[in-house]
Specification:
Number of domains: 2
GO molecular function, one term: DNA binding
Structural class: alpha/beta
Protein name: Transcriptional regulator, DeoR family
Number of strands: 14
Strand content: 15-25%
Mean pLDDT: 91
Organism: Anaerococcus prevotii (strain ATCC 9321 / DSM 20548 / JCM 6508 / NCTC 11806 / PC1)
Keywords: DNA-binding, Transcription, Transcription regulation
Distance between the termini: 22 Å
Low-confidence stretches: none
InterPro entries: Carb_Metab_HTH_regulators, DeoR-like_C, DeoR_HTH, NagB/RpiA_transferase-like, Tscrpt_reg_HTH_DeoR_CS, WH-like_DNA-bd_sf, WH_DNA-bd_sf
Length: 229
């Protein structure tokens, strides 16, 4: 078994068990303790796991990158995802466009006519104005780091709509859930999915196996749009 396969298997087990022992892993992978140590070192350096006495636990992330940092990462992949997602929007539809750097890419490729966009993402405003797209901004508490509005006011305004489509960003996902770093953002994302006839999550490959405290929705409850592999 090659290194990449072993690393994936370790992560798969951790997603299910949350904590595993070195003894269990050496038997599961049929490797020596020294090989296992090297594998765990790789995963720990990548921030995927945390070593504990006699084993390892899944590293649940708490840090959150700013929109400025996210904007330039995985740029070509985000463009590909944005192009694919934009083609799903029909003419004369009401769309919730979640805040985020990947959802932001959709605007560049939007060709549908007479579309109305509802968003809580301030990073979208300039592009939408320049494209002359009918836009409604959801109010609420401004979170400057991610350029998003959240809170009670945002939730109340969101509930006035019945969306044809919703396109949602995520900070991470595994086999069970999509995640974000902020519970208030998670609530807005979840509600917009609930209020939509059809919803999609947009996430680039760097988000896979990234686990945060705030769950958005189950992995099988909404369709993921990702780059073709």
């Amino acid at each position: 078994m090659i290194v990449e396969e072993r690393l994936d298997m370790i992560l798969d087990v951790l997603f299910k068990e949350k904590k595993i022992s070195n003894r269990y892993l050496t038997k599961k992978l049929h490797v020596s303790e020294s090989t296992l140590r090297r594998d765990l070192d790789i995963l720990e350096e990548a921030g995927k796991i945390r070593r504990v006495h006699g084993g390892a636990v899944l590293n649940i992330k708490t840090d959150e990158r700013s929109f400025t940092d996210n904007e330039q990462s995985m740029l070509e992949e985000k463009k590909s995802i944005g192009r694919k997602a934009s083609k799903l929007i029909p003419d004369k539809s009401l769309v919730f466009l979640d805040a985020g750097s990947t959802t932001n890419m959709m605007i560049d490729f939007l060709e549908a006519k007479e579309v109305r966009i509802v968003t809580n993402g301030l990073m979208h405003v300039t592009k939408l104005m320049e494209r002359g797209i009918d836009t409604i901004i959801i109010g609420g508490r401004l979170k400057a780091r991610t350029r998003v509005t959240t809170g009670v006011i945002a939730m109340n305004e969101l509930c006035d709509f019945n969306f044809d489509l919703a396109f949602i960003g995520a900070n991470g996902f595994d086999e069970e859930y999509f995640y974000t770093a902020d519970i208030n953002e998670a609530l807005i994302k979840r509600k917009s999915i609930e209020l939509s006839n059809k919803a999609y999550i947009l996430a680039d490959s760097s988000k896979e196996h990234e686990v945060y405290h705030a769950k958005i929705i189950g992995r099988n409850d909404v369709e993921l749009i990702e780059e073709d592999r």
